[in-house]
Amino acid sequence: MREDDLTQASDAQLVVAIGRWRQDALAEAYRRHGGAVFALACRVLTDRLLAEEVAQDVFVRLWHEPGRFDPQRGSLRSFLLAHAHNRAVDIVRSEEARRGRERRQHQERVRVSAGEDVEGDVWDLTVAEHVRDALGLLPPGERQAIEMAYFGGKTYRQVAASLGEPEGTVKSRIRSGLRRLRDNLADLVWEDSREP
Amino acid sequence: MNPRLGHHEIEELLGAYALDAVDADEALTLENHLRGCPRCRAEVAAHRETAALLVEDRLEPPPELWDRVTAGMEEVPPPIDLAQFARAERRPSRATPWWLAAAAAVAVVLGAGSFVVQQQRHDQLQAALHSQEVAVEVLAAFNDPGARLATLRSGDGQVHVRAVLLRDGTGYVLADRLPDLSGGRVYQLWAMVDGAPRSAGVLGAEPAMARFHASNATTALAISIEPVGGAEQPTLPVLLTGLLEA
Ligand SMILES: [Zn+2]
């Protein structure tokens, strides 16, 4: 690898370069992961402008605090997505709290927030085929719990309340579903790598 | 919520915590616990990697977003033109799902926290198994009903390398299909054990069939390109990866 060929750099090398104030390294990180960060924020917030704010925040923070990324503890992609998700969920929940106050004041019915309709056409068309297959192999309860929590920004308690399921059940389904999803993906990778 | 949760209750929350799906007080309890518990940290990291695979990648961020990012930087050189990093060019083809590469990277990275950098020798594998006797041995290994087979495939799907691991930990990799390397680089074989890559030996610059040894707990094999002598950890992205049959 040429030292300056950032398109070939590992995520860890990129982040080291970002730490040296190399803006082209940040640009490469953005090129690799900016779309996913923005997409996740859009899914959780269902608002492009808010999603832009979150994505901006994620990459500005990477620029200023690259040391927060520890390559020993995961990929840069999941690090950035976790940050984006956390920010987006904060926004969703503070919005819910605001609406909750208004509801108490005005006795309005609270609107259902994003994430109820998790199977939009756009998603179906664009989600990576194998990931969709792996999701499809999950028991419906696990799939629903993961999608409502991750894309809907809901706590497991909120998921339980809106499904009328026990909280403990939803909590377990999220965990077992994530494990099963991982196993399913591994199986699909294996099937894919088998010679015909 | 009771801050003195037992370990089982903590574990039950790890999936929801990884998805930010716990209440604020639960999140605090979890964070306290995670600081002192590498096992739970590893599980959260694994859940986050899995969740990250669910995020679709094809939504183009609006062009002004990059401008907003650079506007958020202070006292730095002027923004560079993002157009030179043509995004579309690096899009993986349909034949090679982007997450396959991602999953490989994930597999390599996960558990790396427990990968203590040891001063291990990266033994040159006993390569070029020319003799008839060894060829028979390899054939027998592939036909052993207890053997676990793997096909290691390159990211672009162009190169396949077959490998087999016997119950006693002896393995064979038919690396002769890999192109020769030059410039002081060698192929290195990795065994994924408990999510962490362990060197299974250096295959050399002109790899052939080789015998190796790996733990029974190996879940996947990978081949990377490293400097002569081998590396402590694989250089990412790894060249070929394959899961071992259960
Ligand atoms: Zn623990």
Major β-sheet annotation of chain A: none
Proportion of helical residues of chain A: over 70%
Number of strands of chain A: 0
Order of helices and strands of chain A: HHHHHHHHH
Derived structural class of chain A: mainly alpha
Biggest chain-to-chain interface with counts? A-B, 79 and 71 residues
User: Which molecules other than protein and nucleic acid are bound?
Assistant: zinc ion
The total count of helices of chain B amounts to: 6
- What percent of residues of chain A are in strands? under 5%
Topology:
The complex is a heterodimer of chains A (196) and B (246).
Chain A: H1 11-19, H2 23-45, H3 48-64, H4 76-106, H5 121-126, H6 129-136, H7 140-150, H8 156-163, H9 167-193
Chain B: H1 7-18, H2 24-36, H3 38-53, H4 63-71, H5 98-109, E1 126-127, H6 132-143, E2 148-154, E3 160-165, E4 170-174, E5 185-193, E6 196-204, E7 209-213, E8 218-227, E9 240-243
Antiparallel strand pairs in B: 1-7, 2-3, 2-9, 3-4, 4-7, 5-6, 5-8, 8-9
Bound molecules: zinc ion.
Describe it for me?
The complex is a heterodimer of chains A (196) and B (246). Chain A has 196 residues and is an all-alpha fold. In chain A, 71% of the residues lie in helices and 0% in strands. Chain A is built from 9 helices and no strands. Chain A has helices at residues 11-19, 23-45, 48-64, 76-106, 121-126, 129-136, 140-150, 156-163, 167-193. In chain A, helix 2 (23-45) runs antiparallel to helix 3, helix 6 crosses helix 9 and helix 8 (156-163) packs across helix 9. The longest helix of chain A is centred in the middle third of the chain and has 31 residues, at 76-106. The two termini of chain A are 33 Å apart. Helices cover 30% and strands 23% of the residues of chain B. Chain B has 246 residues and is an alpha+beta fold. A 9-stranded antiparallel sheet of chain B has the order 1-7-4-3-2-9-8-5-6. Residues 76-121 and 127-132 of chain B have low confidence and may be disordered. In chain B, strand 3 and strand 4 (170-174) form a beta hairpin. At the A-B interface, helix 2, helix 3, helix 4, helix 6 and helix 7 of A face helix 1, helix 3, helix 4, helix 5 and strand 2 of B. The structure holds zinc ion. Zinc ion is lined by residues 7, 10, 33, 37, 39-40 of chain B.
